[in-house]
Amino acid sequence: VGTQEGLFDVCQAYLDPGDQALIPDPGFPGYAGVVRLTGAEPVPYALAAHDRFRLDADAFERALAASPRARLALIAH
Fold first, then answer.
1. Which residues of the chain register pLDDT less than 50?
2. Which whole-number Å values give the CA distances from 72 to 25, 32, 47, 49, in the listed order?
């Protein structure tokens, strides 16, 4: 039906309670809610306005290193 359902299915398949999922900030507000429905914790990673909200590989890598229970990352396009 829509992307929200697909995202939920992916989260259900890959996340368990207590896991973490990296989500873009700013990003679609539904990302955090879908992650929480699985019992996992959403962990935001920053997308900077001065960089036109593009993914900064170094910042993403730091967020990943700081999230040892991360099992999933949503990448903003």
1. none
2. 15, 12, 17, 24
